[in-house]
User: What shape does this take?
Amino acid sequence: MSYILENKDEYNRLEFQAKQSAYSIGDELRFLNLPSKAKILDAGCGSGVAFKHLSEVFALESIYACDRSELRLAQAKSSLPRHLESKVNFSNQDLNELDLTPDSLDAVISRYVYEYLEDPYKVSSEFYKVLKPGGVCYLVDFDGIVFNLYSSNIKLNEYLLKFKNELKEDYFVGRRLPDTLKKAGFKNIKWTAQVFSFQGESLEEEIWNMEQRLELALPRMTEMLKSETKAREFKDLYLQEMAVETNTLFYNKFITYGFK
Assistant: This one.
């Protein structure tokens, strides 16, 4: 159920998601302290939510914004505020081999990216390489998203078990982030976990958000289930069960950071 990055509608979903309380960028980055004239990397920048927020909070000298999607980079660039045009450098990069000067950055920020990485330790090592001594690697990711929906619907749970066993993505990556940073050489590692429960208005918003996620992921789900009909059945079942009053939906969010 990975993102279909080259779908233009993903930009709108990301922008909507950023307005939800469970995805509050200000809350997620509240532990980040940056020196004056800091140089940062937004790794997997998406629509640019993180670096735009940080540019309002800190006096940044330069921003490197990279993403594997050329379309997402183009959309982020087209919505770039005029005052940031001279500060932001966009690039389509492989996080496994960054084309950046070693020991040059004050911070690397990466949100909701690690669940999609084939080798998170390799990527963390790349982040370590490009950071200055004392620089911070700051990661945000969920743990249990998609799977942390309680439902007694047998068919839905069969689908979820199949996805859980076969997905290459790691939707429980949040709990592994501190160890990942440690193995890459980072020190003084800090982490916190929050639980977000979805009820009332927040549930309505997340149902819409999940509907967009699943719609964009239909080609991937069709491939896994070998049937578009089954993929659409899963999507409809999931959304229906999200709306059941006695079902519970919660996400665990990990904020993890360490220093070079």
